[in-house]
Amino acid sequence: MPAPRRQAAAAAAPASPRTPGFATADRLHSAAIHLLRSLRVEDRASGLSAPRLSALSVIVFGGPIAMSALAAAEQVRPPTISRLVAELERLGLVERDPDPADRRGVKVRATAKGRQLLEEGRRRRVGRLGAALEALPPRERKLLARAAVLIEALVRPA
Amino acid sequence: MPAPRRQAAAAAAPASPRTPGFATADRLHSAAIHLLRSLRVEDRASGLSAPRLSALSVIVFGGPIAMSALAAAEQVRPPTISRLVAELERLGLVERDPDPADRRGVKVRATAKGRQLLEEGRRRRVGRLGAALEALPPRERKLLARAAVLIEALVRPA
DNA sequence: ATATTTAGTTAGCCTAGCTAACTAATTCTA
DNA sequence: TAGAATTAGTTAGCTAGGCTAACTAAATAT
Predict the structure, then answer these.
(1) What is the pLDDT of residue B17?
(2) Could you tell me the pLDDT band of residue B116, with boundaries at 50, 70 and 90?
(3) Cβ pair B39, B128 in contact under 8 A
(4) Which residues have C-beta within 8 Å of that of residue B95, sequence separation ≥ 6?
(5) Cα–Cα 20 to 30 A to B67, which of A28, B81, B90, B98?
(6) Mean pLDDT: which of A131-135, B19-23, B68-72 is highest?
(7) Strand, coil or helix: B123
(8) pLDDT tops 80 at residue A10
């Protein structure tokens, strides 16, 4: 286990095990775990580890981004990002430019190769699940799409 | 990145990016990632890392279980499980008994302390999400509950 | 009776987390 | 405005968790 990071005592009043919210939360949590576990297989085909894929994704979609912002997005410490970006750079997937506005700073951006690799990976990963969803009645597929939106809303402002 | 594990060429025909299944899959994938990321905070309070919590969970719910079965459930190699279980044992959360039916084998089971720690963690983790769900209109909460069931069904037979 | 397979462990390597300690640049303040 | 404090990023060194290779011991197959 990595050394625990101090949290700003986050404990909101937890729902008691009796409430309908708790039961749903439990099911949702479990479903999310199993969903992601089943997709991990596809990610391996990219040749990149999960942390690298995740960081690359933030860099691709988050435009040129500062190291500190990237660390925050990935919820890791700056040294972790430093090393990770160094590896992505060595692989030709991203580049580091000095920030002209602040000469301490650095902006990371994806190369064409990086974008391409990510896009392929996303296609593979989501492709398998997408095929399964195609087989579903449209009603159920719509239900899942709405659920995804609800979940994002629940989680986003956290 | 850990050395890639050979996969039995799993590539099912991926859905093309145009289909409705693909768009939904993308949203669902993203929602699952963000959901789990937001809950990670609570897991840290348990003092156990994610791999240890996950293995402990399998041991608690999967009854006395062989090392090899545990490795399969966690999708890791036997040496990884050997070491992980050794640590859980050192912490007093699980115990290893020789398998009387096959003297090469070992059965791992949770101690009372292990069960208790897991239950507390689950309460904390799901509590925060549960509270958020309580605030939702019952209709939307039901939608999420049904979505969870659908997802499990999609993923389970994979 | 011996050879092969299977269950688990040990040894040794790599990646990804962390903290601590550092440099360089910026910003604040007396 | 000189000096102090803060901020951005890196380097060094540690631990945990992944892997393969190589091993022991037991079970099974020839």
Answers:
(1) 59
(2) very high
(3) yes
(4) B89, B108, B109, B111
(5) A28
(6) B68-72
(7) helix
(8) no
Q: Does A112 touch chain B (CB under 8 A)?
A: no
Q: For the beta carbon of residue B128, count every other beta carbon within 10 angstroms.
A: 21
Our CA-based measurement puts residue A33 at a distance from the nearest CA of chain B, in whole angstroms, of 8
Which protein residues, judged by their CB atom, are less than 7 Å from any atom of strand C? A 2-3, 5-6, 49, 51-52, 74-77, 79-80, 83-84, 87, 102-104; B 1-2, 66-69, 78-79, 81-83, 85-86, 96, 99, 102, 104-106
**Closest partner residue to B44 among A7, A30, A42, by Cβ?**
A7
The per-residue DSSP string of chain A comes to -PPPPP-----PPPPPTTSHHHHHHHHHHHHHHHHHHHHHHHHHTTTS-HHHHHHHHHHHHT-SEEHHHHHHHHT--HHHHHHHHHHHHHTTSEEEEE-TT-TT-EEEEE-HHHHHHHHHHHHHHHHHHHHHHHTS-HHHHHHHHHHHHHHHHHHTT-
Angstrom distance, A18 CA to C15 C1': 42
Per-position DSSP letters for B54-120, written without gaps between them: HHHHHHHHT-SEEHHHHHHHHT--HHHHHHHHHHHHHTTSEEEEE-TT-TT-EEEEE-HHHHHHHHH
Name residue, tokens 């925050």: A72
Q: What is the pTM of this model?
A: 0.79
Distance in Å from D14's C1' to A37's CA comes to: 30
Tell me: the pLDDT tens digits for A103-156?
999 999 999 999 999 988 878 877 888 888 989 999 999 999 999 999 888 876
